[in-house]
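Following the same procedure, sequence and fold were stored together, as reproduced here.

>
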Amino acid sequence: MNFNLKPFLFIVLSLSVFVVSCDKKTEKEKTVVKTAINTDKVETPKGMVWVASKTFLMGAKNEDKYAMPREKPAHKVAVDGFFIDAHEVTNKQFKEFVAATKYITVAERPIDWDEIKKDLPAGTPKPADSILQPGSLIFNKHAKGIVSMENYGQWWVWKLGADWKHPEGPGSSIEGQDNYPVVHIAQEDALAYCKWANRRLPTEAEWESAAQGKFEDNIYSWGNKLEDLDANANTWQGKFPTENISEDGFEYISPIKSYPANNIGLYDMAGNVWEMTSDLFNVNYYQTIDPNVVLQNPVGADKSYTPSNPYQIEYVMKGGSFLCHASYCASFRISARMGMEPNSGSDHIGFRTVATKEMLAK
């Protein structure tokens, strides 16, 4: 789901944080002094799960009828072990971060026209002040008369005042929803949370390794049977996007742990909300990979590319959301991948974090 946000005029430039570390050198020998890190005693952090190192098949499987060209060809990757959150970061966890840091998310910040116009064609007229207000994308629950499934703008709306504390806009709240995934988070916000928590976003390969769990080449996080979808993931039930019959009891987003965990104890690796990764999204990336070579801890494409949005940087998101349906994106599959612009959020995108033993031992 690639949103071209420029027409809405709410692009907010990402901030990059560069941390430069220097090893001390003795004046006499000018040799680098390194301190060994003992990772033997690192315990699994509370709320996280250890994903053992393994080699597995990344990308679309031959028997996956919903596979898209950007997921092909499948290729072997080897990923070192790491810790990952057992569930998506929740409203409660994000509240704790905000209380400790006073952080203000992108969706809450005043919009600076002088900054926005730098990313727009020269001569673009300034819109009315009433439009230049903070907000975010929300799903249009009243979408009717859908003409073409290619025009996703028919079921999305830019909502002034929508943010992580007000997921449906002014008047809404997250009261009583501490155990729901936090949404309306831009990548900059997720990275700020990661820095505070001594975590980072997963690579796409790490995410797929975690979703596979003890498997090596499965289509879904629960196995290979599509008929088990409703029992294992919060996705759209009914006719997308105009009718959600909600047989599972959740019309839209659901609390964490509402569905069974995968075989290593991870919840919602399919459905509920999309999850961010650190990889750049490039629809042609897999075609550049030699299928005869096992990639070691890949970190994705060197540059972003999406034909419908060629000049905008996008990052890979994984896992699908409560809006996924077989007739539309079918992104409840492990190999499914879509792009997201880093400067915006929506009510169906969240994140979970990872950590390595080396990170935790420091």
